[in-house]
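Q: I'm building a small set of examples for a reading group on sequence design. Run inverse folding on the following structure and report the sequence directly after it, with nothing in between.
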């Protein structure tokens, strides 16, 4: 398949840095814009199961979110002015919503792309304590924390420890379409030119 598809520059250029500028707060209108973009994401049966807990410009909620991140993520995420926990409502009426994480992912991608489009960077991670998130933020029983995110302006790579700086400068890699797009049976590439 054609590997050089003409995709949106925002999608092609977006990446997840770890270097954030802790001296540059995120403006309220930009935070509202990225959350508004998340609001407009598609969802199964239009249930919109996403919720966001937001620590803004190093407030007390920011400190709480930082405290539940894995130690390796705290090293760099502490510099992002905005920290987020995404949460999915796991039920639809009296039954499970098996699309909840999918839909939260769609909302998060909208947030990501809007952030990138207005000059912000995002890095979302799974390395945090879901249990502590539930406890600290009083998340109800039928809701699940999905991911933690760091949002802000790009910082200088040399502000990172050496191992993270190397990862930051590594060439981005993506699998080829033939490795994940199949037809008729598993591992049979679609093969469209």
């Amino acid at each position: 398949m054609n590997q050089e598809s003409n995709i949106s520059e925002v999608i092609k250029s977006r990446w997840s840095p770890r270097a954030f500028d802790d001296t540059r707060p995120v403006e309220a209108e930009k935070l509202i814009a990225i959350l508004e973009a998340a609001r407009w994401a598609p969802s199964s049966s239009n249930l919109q199961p996403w919720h966001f807990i937001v620590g803004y410009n190093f407030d007390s909620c920011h400190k709480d979110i930082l405290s539940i991140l894995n130690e390796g993520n705290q090293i760099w995420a502490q510099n992002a002015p905005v920290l987020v926990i995404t949460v999915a409502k796991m039920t639809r009426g009296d039954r499970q919503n098996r699309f909840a994480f999918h839909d939260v992912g769609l909302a998060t991608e909208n947030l990501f792309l809007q952030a990138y489009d207005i000059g912000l960077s995002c890095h979302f991670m799974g390395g945090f304590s879901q249990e502590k998130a539930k406890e600290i933020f009083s998340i109800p029983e039928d809701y699940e924390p999905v991911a933690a995110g760091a949002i802000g302006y790009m910082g200088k790579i040399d502000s990172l420890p050496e191992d993270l700086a190397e990862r930051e400068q590594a060439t981005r890699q993506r699998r080829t379409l033939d490795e994940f797009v199949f037809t008729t049976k598993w591992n049979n590439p679609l093969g469209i030119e």
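The beta strands are 50-56, 82-89, 91-92, 95-96, 121-125, 143-152.
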